[in-house]
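Input set for joint prediction.
Command: fold jointly, output tokens.
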Amino acid sequence: MRLDTTTRKTLKPLLLMAAVAMVFTIWQHAAWARGRVSLPEYMCQALGWPVMSAGTKINEVIRDTGCSVFLAGSLAADNHRLRQERDELIAEKILLTEYFRENKAFREKLGFELDQQVKDIPAWIVGRTSTSGGQRCRIHIQIPENREVHQGDIVREAAGLVGRVIEVRGRIAIVLLMIDPQHGLGARVQRSRAVGVIKPARQWHEGWPDRLYMEYLRRSADIRIGDIIITSGEDGIYPAAIPIGVVEAINVSAEHAQTVAVTVRPFVDFQHLAYVWVVPQP
Amino acid sequence: MLWLYLTEFALAVMFVACQFAWPTWLRLFEQPPDLAVILLVVVGLTRGPLEGCWAGLVTALTVSSLGSTPLGGLFVSHMGAGTTLGLLGGRIFPEHLPVAMGVTATAVLVMGVVELLFLPPPSVGPWLAAILSQAVLSGLVAAPLFVVLRQLMHYLLPPAQRRV
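tokens >
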């Protein structure tokens, strides 16, 4: 079969581009295997990340302006309510400080090693990676100029755990969120101390797409709807006692007679995250 | 024509970066619209298979770089879609907005299925819901972008090649 001149003219560059694509793919895999990024990726990131940062900033301005316009009428009432809440929180904080000091004194008397005080690093979210199938749920955070973040550092918000840093490239760090399918961690029920494993919900009945699923709890475990779930510290990745979420439903299946699983509503609203704290690991 | 290819690369970087920074309150089922596919559709339908394939190459590279996703499946889906749309350009009526919206939604679905072969999702039900919502949203967003991009493509061409 003979190809005409026009087809041949088009076919040559198409084949060339396919060859370039193949080279780029091999280059990427080779670079990833060494824990690096390939040059074409690096160039795209250098061009794309500033645009992502600018885009996120513009989004925030639009959202804040919109909120101000639509909520203008209820601002006074909100202000009054927030002042009340602030006063209550201040009182609670004083009480907690008292408990903390008491706890510290007990730990010292018992000879327990005291946790070192580390300064958390505030970071701003500049991008999100979420594939349509939920294969990837990650965020890109921008690290302040004078601070350093490392792979494995814990990322949290005031409300609770967000995830952990899996990659650092210059001033941008990639964070694996708790709702990423590749994520898992040891957790415990705060009230009864029952332990299990937290994974993101993958099915409708588990609470997909914004819920977590706690598995491998013993059937006899004391667990109730409304119980608080915290990190257990037994997985060697996360320190203990970081709040994760609250039990929303208890699922008992005939297939797994020895265990019970629960749907957990995370404290962190992953859809509306704007800022996070990076907790450096000692 | 080099500057035209460079412009397409710059547009790909801008569109993909905007896709990842898309506001959460404007997402459907937590999915942003696939702006990279919208660019592919416009370039493919208006410029032909060669430019469509190039747009596929640069959008796949940018999506992979900014999203830390393996390149293989992205190249196959994006370059395949760009080339196919380029070949279809003369047969379907790209000047009609509903056609462009429909083509965008279909392209998102087809490319999603192709990428599924390379990177299978944890479960099919949620994936299907997410890909359908992304297709619908991409189709809707394609309407204004298609008008703007088509004009831009028109003015980027040398005067002799412009369609009246």
